[in-house]
Amino acid sequence: MVKKLQQLNLAEVYPAAYADFNLNACGDPDCGNFGVAPDFTIPVFKGKNASNRRQAAAASIAALTTSFGAYTMSSDDRYPRISEALEYEGDPVGWDDGRTMECGHQRGNGVCDISFTVLSNEHFREEFDRLRFAGGCLEGPVCGACGTRYLERPDEFIFNGTHGKLAAGGNRRRAKPSGFRIIHRPCKGKPGARVSVSLDHQAQKEQGDNVRILRCIVNGDSITTMRRILADPDTGMQIGVSRLYSRIFWLQKTLLAFERAKLREWKEAVDTSGRYSHMRIAHDDITISVNWESRLDRRLTPLQFSVSADIRSGYVFRIDANFDPNVDPVEFVEAHYLDPAGQPTNIRQHYTQKSGITFTAPKMHFQRPSGRLDEAMLFASAEGRWRVFSERVKKAYEKSISAGLALPPEVQDKLADSEVKRAQLDLIRQGYFGFQDTDRDFRGSFNGSVVKPTYTKAAHLACLRTMLPKGRITLVGEQESTMVRIVPHVFRDMIEDDLFEWLVISFDKEVSSPKTKARMAQFRKELEDYKTQVRAAVGDEITDREVLEHFCTDRMTTAVMEDRNGVPYPYSIANFRSRQFPQIWIRSPAQYFGETQKVVGFPVIRKEYRDPLKKLAFDQEIWDQDLRAALARRALRATVQPVSTFMASMRQRTSPSKRAGGKSARTGPAYINGAVFNPAVLMAFLDIFKIYYNWFEPRQYKGPGASAGSEEPVEAGVSAIRIPGTDETIEVPKMATAAPVMLTPAMRLGADPEKPNRRARKHPDPRRVLYRPWLYHSTPLWRKFENR
Ligand SMILES: [Zn+2]
Ligand SMILES: [Zn+2]
Bridge partners of 320? Predict the structure, then answer.
């Protein structure tokens, strides 16, 4: 018989919130509790006559009537865990690993009742910092005494001389210092306050190789090909894999720093220009599998990448994986769950109740230090490493063992240690926390751990926000359940200022390409007919855009699904049926950009439209013409096309993200030969590809509301065709009447501004970009390195 643990209340478990960020509050923009943390002074009434007692108390306690900050809590886990180790040995208990909160704000005659799972704000902040600094790449020097980052407060650091010497020679005319020492002034004299800084690429002998690696990465070459290309031309000696990896990581860091410096300049320019900024962002996910490292065990691990791109220019702002390569599973688990004596620690939470009763319970996921990560996998991987260690040692001594010889005592000690560690990890993992087994027990020799997608998603969007200029943001995505939990919180202040909209689309992805084309052609024809009608009625004053908007406003319908008996049910997935969002989804008549049969939902839309929209049931038609027009306008621009274009290009062009066996993963996963084994390398590939795509590769781009024309007229002219068997030619008129305008996304975004003379624009040369200290851009160190 399994006992239940002590009941907990909300005040006891409510996670700490930051002044400017809190995930644990009601997510309905129209609820009085939107972003309001629980008020624990409001008494909770439970049991018999609860509502009567509540009413009686309401007379004296004002907060009860306003119900400002009123929440309740319930258990959330569908899979209760069983603990049967340590204090529960021989006396197992069952408990729920997580909690749900319900909003108790009064609304008319009822309560808001929107419910959500409790998350940790600290885990969010940790993930936010990981993405913000690209896993440490962009952190820069840090004061060893107090932890202040140089890049955050360059004014607090002073120079303290140079160190090292770069020899004259090559294209260097005289010897130069290889680095600089800086001192954090407030900490002067303390150990660690003096830091020396040098540039990473100084140690690289063959700098030309870096550009070749870059070209290989963006042209679909595998690691194997790169090693062949970089081999010594005389001896054929190939470069080692780990050296190649470190070059790739250097490229990633340099390019990320370059991009950050450029985007910051762009943001500042837009912010100070006083122009009104409205960014439309397309957001989507892509799953890319990584080969695990064992040749014997050909299973893939899917990583989820969140991608956000600007709809107008096609600029891809971020691509973030739910994988933290800086976590060493063994080190992490031992540092957080074992004390110096090797005993389990930090696994239970202590509670003291008002009555004075104290007790402990296993920490829940939002309380555990590892709660940000996929814990079942993390623990399995930590234990697996010890197992692999033992096996490798034993294999090395195979001969001695089969000859019946004793192993050297220090080896025996190490093997015994390994057994102890494994037993301890297993005790915590399965005996105490009750994590289920995963099928990845033996794998994970590289560092890292998968992060829970909700935290990565929240951090991705929060980082994106910091990159965009002040102004309005429209986020367009697909129906993802994690978004529901976090979008209202990440953009809360903007929603309150009515500066944020979130549209969700779905379209026909299964359709064949000829059918898509047929639909688009049909749509164009209908639109042309409509145009003729309208122009006949109101004259030529009306623009094409206005005609298109009228067409869509006219023909837009409410989208519903029907079950077998013809009973309608909401179009959206369950997560979007929450009362915090309008329930009406509309079917757009526009068939273009390869996204046909499009249905659009409006989870967050400007208040003037949200209020009437929320009043309608999911299957009602919208009669209000202004509202119809507003929704039609939005539906026309709602697309994830810039992300799909980027992903298609990436799939085609980078070797590790190719899907084995055709277009989809439906045929089942297959081992990808020559693909990377290490997720950190895959992430570097994608970052590098993203920046190359944004800055160095001009393309034609047609998007909804694309900034400039994507084509320009070609002067009428003639070209010559040779008559076969003769030297004579005949002149014929030139074929094309329009030439594509080739620009990089950065140019269209305005981050790589046009030169005043309007000559044919050139994209930057990667060679000129790679060897500058972008990380220190616009700080005193930048100038030192540039002018030394
Ligand atoms: Zn609420
Ligand atoms: Zn300091």
Answer: 306
State the pLDDT at residue 366: 96
- Gap from CA of 121 to ligand 2 centroid (Å): 26
Closest ligand to the CA of 31: 1
Of 4-13, 192-201, 385-394, 442-451, which range is least confident?
A: 442-451
The rounded Å distance from CA 582 to ligand 1 centre is 15
- Ligand 1 centroid – CA 28 distance (Å): 6
- 401-439 pLDDT, tens digit per residue, is 888 888 899 999 999 999 999 999 989 998 999 887 665
Dump the DSSP string for 696-725.
T--B----TT-SS-SEEEPPP-EEEEEPTT
Cα(107) to centroid of ligand 1, in Å?
9
Please report which ligand is nearest the Cα atom of 158: 2
Identify the sign of the CA torsion 494, 495, 501, 503: positive
CA of 19 to the centre of ligand 1 (A): 20
Full DSSP string of 402-471: HTTPPPPHHHHHHHHHHHHHHHHHHIIIIIIS-PPP-TTTT---SS-EEBPHHHHHHHHHHHHHHHSPSS
Comparison of pLDDT for 757 and 302, the residue scoring more: 302
CA–centroid distance, 775 to ligand 2, in Å, is 20
pLDDT tens digits, residue range 29-78?
999 999 999 998 877 776 677 777 777 776 666 666 678 899 999 987 67
Q: How far is the CA of 152 from the centre of ligand 2 (A)?
A: 12
Considering only CA atoms, give the Rg of the chain. 30
Ligand 1 centroid, distance to 612 Cα (angstroms): 19
Q: Which ligand is nearest to the CA of 183?
A: 2
Q: Which residue has the tokens 């501004």?
A: 753
Taking the centre of ligand 2 as the mean of its atom positions, its distance from the CA of residue 249, in whole angstroms, is 28
Q: Report the distance separating Cα 89 and Cα 105, nearest Å.
A: 43
Q: Around ion ligand 2, which residues have CB less than 5 A away?
A: 143, 145-146, 148, 184, 187
Ligand of minimum distance to the alpha carbon of 67: 1
Q: What is the DSSP string of 369-402?
A: TTTTB-HHHHHHHHHHHHHHHHHHHHHHTHHHHH
Above 60 in pLDDT, residue 672? no
CA of 135 to the centre of ligand 2 (A): 22
Average of pLDDT values for 768-788? 89
Each domain of the chain, given as residue ranges in start order, spans: 3-118, 329-347+371-447, 505-638
Rounded distance between C-alpha atoms, residue 718 and residue 241, angstroms: 54
**What is the chain's mean pLDDT, rounded?**
87
Residues 580 and 28: beta-carbon distance below 8 Å: yes
Strand, helix or coil for residue 632 = helix
**Centroid of ligand 1 to alpha carbon of 33 (angstroms):** 5
Spell out the alpha helix ranges (H) of 91-240: 121-132, 208-218, 223-229
Token match 């600029």: residue? 315
Helix orientation angle between 241-273 and 679-695, rounded to the nearest 10 degrees: 40
**pLDDT score of 467:** 97
Question: What are 572's two structure tokens?
Answer: 């959206």
